[in-house]
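Known limitations

Files may contain more than one protein. Parsers should not assume a single record per file. Below, a two-record file is shown to illustrate correct handling: read the sequence, read the token line, then continue until end of file.
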Amino acid sequence: MSQETIMINSMIADLETVAGSDREKLKQGFERIRKAFPNALDYIDTQELFVYEKRKMYDDALAVANKILEKKPDDYTANLRKARILGIYRRYNESTVLFEKLLVQPSLDKEKYIIVTGHYAKMLLSAERRRDAILVLERAVKKYPDAVALKTKLAICYKRIAMNEKALEILKTLPGDDAYVRMEKAHVYINMLKPDAAEKELKAAEGLFELWRLNDKRLQNQHERRSIAERLTALKIALKAVRGEATYARKWLEENHKKSPAAKLVGVTLSIIEKQGGERSGKEKTKPLSEKGNHSSVKTAVACATVSFTCLAGLLFWVF
């Protein structure tokens, strides 16, 4: 990294601290940085794009992405960010076209192909196009059959459409020392109402994440660490529900459904238990949700998905 780049990064960090999410202060600050470093305009544009996206200032991020693409139509970073933002705005057809364009870029290496595919599949899932997401991931797995992340995401898609046996079949072929794989296996077993198998996988995942905490680059990201912690907590609550503590799980969901995106998987588990007649391990027979009072949070969570899904970009590029 050049001295100039270090200085630019330092100025941007100071600007973020002072400006926060104040749009005008950020824009004025970036203009000052451009004047100070006129030979690094492309780099500064990209960093400005990152700042706006990180702060969910999507209109501004999209404007910067379009500005970059006017000069460099094939710019990987700008195209990827634009495709993601179009998906967030539910402009799914435009997003699809852009993702497909990205995937055929000659300069796209294996790592970038996997990243683009992960974001593409996430967008398709958001659009409720689950079968299309599976087709996109199957195409990617065929191209890179050794990519554990792609196969993990493919298993998640099958889990999303309640094809748990198919999801498990894929996950069983993946390395047992992969924390993300073990976490997904735990979730599949929960959906299959197999608490003993789920608990075994969940404990393994927790141990592996602890070992990875200092060394795996994904877990060096604060957002990713928080996402994983929330997901593991929600899986533990879902496991309690499967073991017969549905009342406890409902109460937890009511208190946490707005605090954590991962909480919705608990609502999905409760829905699965209800459909199975409510008897788990002979400990508790759950009443229909409508008989438990006002459980709009559960209904909202269940309406969001038939089987839970967390982003693994979560795997940073799925942070699916």
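...continuing to the second record:
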Amino acid sequence: MSPLKKEPNNQAIARTSSVFVPVIEHDLASFSAMLEAWEAAENFLMLQSPEPPTLAETAALLGWTIPPEDGSRRVKPKPTATAKATAAALNLIRGGYNTHADFEGLPVAAGNEIAIQAQYLMNNFDGPYRTITAERIEEGKKRIGVAVAKTAQDFIKGDVPRNRLRIALDKNIYQFAREAERKPPVKLSFEFFLSPER
């Protein structure tokens, strides 16, 4: 199976009000192509229902799911890492923190690492630290978005290996916070940005 190409004459997605042809998930494919497929799938589902589609619904449409290990039909398949990552990247874009261009040039594996870590950090701002001011939370989220773009470019240039992407993202966030305020955003220590899920 060869990587998908993101070219106008080789579109991986076909869309109308009644047709949707999904992209086959592939680790060596362009993350941008996978992101485009996810966005198209969400748009397609929103044509069918006024309610925003869930992660599971979009993943099922694309076939980006992991079946239960025991093969049981009573347990629903879980979304793959690419499903979670493209959903996270789309949330960053729709929130105004990133653009599609920030993810261009990344392979799926690298895009997954960056987007999933960014979502983890965003969720922390909406969780135990939601008691701080909305302005401070927004400042922190914007720094995450800037760090996402910087980390992606560092990887593309060969400055960061894939197995260090999450740590590189954390360090970039901390660096931007120090440059802006000479201290981490919302008075959080550097350790806050280091996810235990490594």
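Parsers that stop after the first record will miss the second one. For reference, the second record is described as follows. DSSP finds six helices and four strands in the chain.
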